[in-house]
Fold these 2 entries.
Entry 1:
Amino acid sequence: MPKIAVIGAGPAGIAASIQLSRAGHEVTVFEHGIIGGNLWNAGFVENYPGFPGGITGKHLAQLMEEQFQEYDFVLRRIEVTKAAFTGTHFTVNSAGNEEYDGMILCTGTRPKKAGFPGEDELHGVGLLHYNIMRLEEWYPEGNALVVGGGESSMDMAMTLAERGLKVTLLHRSELRGIKYLLDAVKIDDSITVTEGSVESVRLHGGKAVARIGTEELPFDLILVAVGRESHLPELEGIDPEYPPAGFRIVGDAKHGGLGQAAMAVGDGIRAAMGIGREARK
Ligand SMILES: Cc1cc2nc3c(=O)[nH]c(=O)nc-3n(C[C@H](O)[C@H](O)[C@H](O)COP(=O)(O)OP(=O)(O)OC[C@H]3O[C@@H](n4cnc5c(N)ncnc54)[C@H](O)[C@@H]3O)c2cc1C
């Protein structure tokens, strides 16, 4: 049976792995983070079919993992830094003794930095984050600054407010997103929506101090949600524009920050079905 490598176990990788496994392929899944991927950042998902009334991102990720674990595959808990095509086979991290007939890259996105002075220092001491899921086991008390004007920033502001924090949601010009989120942040008493931009941040007295215009304001947490970008390992012998047969990039890794879970799942299944046919030839 063809051996297929699936890189990343977010919604796209989970769907691809299940489909490949159902078809009887030998599947190896590589995942260096949390199974379920970026869904762990999503507070509330109301547009994934099958869940009337919506479902939390965390619960949807857990259900996807439960279903994923029902199937046969090898799960490798490592980061793939390089994906290569030798001309006949695919390899991962230059491990020449492990060859695959097909490969599906489902590595999703990584958050963009805001770029203000002090950002890396505060991230280093754990006062500035880019992902809600990193806070899952530990939520600070007090107040939080969420930087960004898109749907992710509103969704994350609501998650922090639900955890009891007083949230300032800072956007540069306007909040952009679907009506449900725009309405929800405006009526939430724990969220103050403010226009402005962060000039710099610094650590002072155990707090994250942000300079916003002429004011310096202390926060217990800063969350930066200014967009996400496609995240791929190094590719060798693979041109993403003209990929070899048996290779696909799917989900958010392909769509960037504009992807949705249902799109990733559909992409993953389509890729698995296509690669399954190609790898058999
Ligand atoms: C705040 C927020 C709210 C959202 N709300 C919604 C919503 O309401 N509805 C909706 O449909 N979607 C929503 N989304 C988007 C949704 O989460 C994504 O579209 C979806 O998770 C993309 O799936 P994916 O599998 O393509 O990528 P991801 O979910 O990003 O998964 C990629 C996986 O690959 C792993 N990985 C990455 N690189 C490597 C590597 N080199 N080696 C090994 N493993 C690797 C990662 O650890 C991760 O598990 C939201 C996202 C955010 C941030």
Note: Residues 7-13, 30-34, 37-39, 41-42, 45, 47-48, 79-80, 106-109, 152, 155-156, 231, 233, 251-253, 259-262, 264 surround flavin-adenine dinucleotide (CB under 6 Å).
Entry 2:
Amino acid sequence: MNICNKPPNKTAPENLGEAGPEVQRARRNGWSWPLHPFQIITWLLYLFFALVGFGILVPLLPIHWLPAGYICPGVCFIYHLVVHLTAVSIDPADAKVREKNYLGPLATFNRNQHAHVIENHHCHVCDVNVSAKSKHCGTCNKCVHGFDHHCKWLNNCVGKRNYWFFLNSVVSAILGLGLLLLVAFYVFVEFFLNPTMLRSDHHYEGLKNHTDVWFVFLPAVPVETRAPAILFSAGTFILLGLVTVGLLGHLLIFHIYLMWNKLTTYEYILQQRAQQEAKEADKQPDPCPSQVIPSQVPAVPPTLFFHHLFWALDCLFSFANAAVCYSRAVNRVGELIWVVFSRASSLPFSSPSSHITACVSMKEDD
Ligand SMILES: [Zn+2]
Ligand SMILES: [Zn+2]
């Protein structure tokens, strides 16, 4: 890896040292312009899960299960909405930055004049003294106290002021979605085994001989539909729900690991990068001086999304392997499937920690 061509510190403004016409401005929170596509996807997913879950799937539960079906995931969804909105809306900036009107044009950082964006606890861009735990986020263009990472799904920095809300939004999303997934599984299975169990609402009373007629958005605004629509809704919900819960679950485990080790995401990535560079230095001494200045630490990778995706695929292949081994013991068809899946599992997915290292390495190659 040629570290001589590394990009400059991406936690710093992008037009470093250039007297370009572009004026640097800071972002206040996740609602500040520009919005991020991931942020829009997040809200679309929330709408999809809420509409399909509470509008189509829960109303198909037997009547005695309806109160629990609405209340348990409903409380989680409402709580998630509150903490998610709070995490997006909070300004995580350093207290000194918030005290001044920092939304106007910012000073342009000149690398020829200063070696680092923050020197002796003074940020040359925010032009204030900041706390020792503050880092200057290049995306938000301001110093964030207790910087953990810049979250593209919130379109806001996660720092000390909103970390608790961020973590609660992850936990509540897993709980709420997990409960609705149970409902979706029930609907999907009963649809084939005993569909009458799903038709306990009074709208189905006169339709005993019309089993292809179904309703969505019961009981408030019943809309007549056909059987494939119910099946498609439940199937799509299960697929999207499993992927989302898998990724969020991995994110939660990762943050439990960080809390256990008293690290932030940012510190963890720096640690991993240092280890990676030490390994590479051992392998092949690099005569080129690194352009990365110690206190101008590299930015957090754009997102842990791909890292989480790789981990989910890793699990998928692990399950596939387990199923395949079982089939092999049963008959020769199982052996054939095992060969196919064993080849698939030779893809470079080994462990969550190795994915993070890979993610950091990929960032270096940007
Ligand atoms: Zn700053
Ligand atoms: Zn940020």
Note: The longest helix spans residues 227-260.
